[in-house]
From TrEMBL:
Function: ESCRT-III-like protein involved in cytokinesis, nuclear envelope reassembly and endosomal tubulation. Is required for efficient abscission during cytokinesis. Involved in recruiting VPS4A and/or VPS4B to the midbody of dividing cells. During late anaphase, involved in nuclear envelope reassembly and mitotic spindle disassembly together with the ESCRT-III complex: IST1 acts by mediating the recruitment of SPAST to the nuclear membrane, leading to microtubule severing. Recruited to the reforming nuclear envelope (NE) during anaphase by LEMD2.
Name by which UniProt lists this protein: IST1 homolog
Location in the cell: Cytoplasm, Cytoskeleton, Microtubule organizing center, Centrosome; Cytoplasmic vesicle; Midbody; Nucleus envelope
Gene3D superfamilies in the record: Vacuolar protein sorting-associated protein Ist1 (1.20.1260.60)
PANTHER family, A to Z: IST1 FAMILY MEMBER, IST1 HOMOLOG
GO process annotations (BP): cell division; protein transport
SUBUNIT field: Interacts with CHMP1A, CHMP1B, VPS4A and VTA1. Interacts with SPAST, STAMBP, and USP8. May interact with VPS37B. May associate with the ESCRT-I complex. Interacts with MITD1, in competition with VSP4. Interacts with SPART (via MIT domain); leading to the recruitment of SPART to midbodies. Interacts with SPAST.
Organism of origin: Ascaris suum
Biased composition regions of type Gly residues, renumbered to the chain: 212-222, 253-272
InterPro entries xrefs: Ist1, IST1-like
Domain of life, per lineage: Eukaryota
Family label: Belongs to the IST1 family.
Record's keyword terms, sorted: Cell cycle, Cell division, Cytoplasm, Cytoplasmic vesicle, Cytoskeleton, Nucleus, Phosphoprotein
Amino acid sequence: MSISWGTQYAKLKTNLRLAINRLKLVEKKKTEMALKSRGEIADFIAEHKEDRARIRVEHIIREDFLVEAYELLEMYCDLLLARFGLIQQMKQLDDGIAEAVISILWAAPRVATDISEFKIISDQLTLKYGKPFAEAARANQLEFPAKVAPKLIAKLSVQAPPKLLVERYLIEIAKSAGIPFTPDPNVMREDEVAAAEQMLIDFKNQGGQGYGWMYPGGGNQGGNSAVPPPGPPPDGNASGGYYPGPPPPPPGGFGSGGYGGPDYGLGGGSGGYKAPLPQMPTHNGGAAANVPFNYPRLSQTAMT
């Protein structure tokens, strides 16, 4: 006896609602158990049984991750209920619910032990969108129209939690209980090295590699390095602020000596601007008023 799609839609909607209620109950239960376990871990730390405490902390971390994954799935179920019309009225998977559908199909086999409703939800979505699509979603092989949520994959991972995260949990648990605790120095040293490397990366990304961000065109021909400006003048007159370096070279036509060099006003240089020769100052009401200093036939009487 075949079942009409209307009955299956009703079944899908009912199990979505049941799954949300079950998820909330499981989240609450696991959170309470984790709080209780934290007290036991604090006792292990007080008794200097750090190795046992670390093992228990790994279990707590997995439970915390699982609770976060359940919260994501609860959100996806809410989304499908809110947009249930897109499931009923459209034959193809709508982009607005694609990530939710694909993530639920992928997570269903992994959470069906605690939330049995997800098996029914997965079966109904498989009937709706086809078996090949559902199998590709469960294997996380889809790229379009969406992929499995990366955060959900990370929270449902079966890998052991990082050692650094374990130490941080122990530090917080001991701090909350008022118990002295010394974390593993080797693990914390790795954290310090990673933090220092991250700071260096951020420093470079923000243009902190010397003067490169101030002088983007400097450096070698490839433009990979920047040349910093020269330091303040040796007479020590710099005020301690930013020193822009020496003035730029003069424009063409001022001679090879730059400003005030040997070619200035003496007819040398590249044929540009030539300043006039300095003139003799006036004497006794205008005598020798416009005679150059270096005029070769300057009379002796004109100087008196």
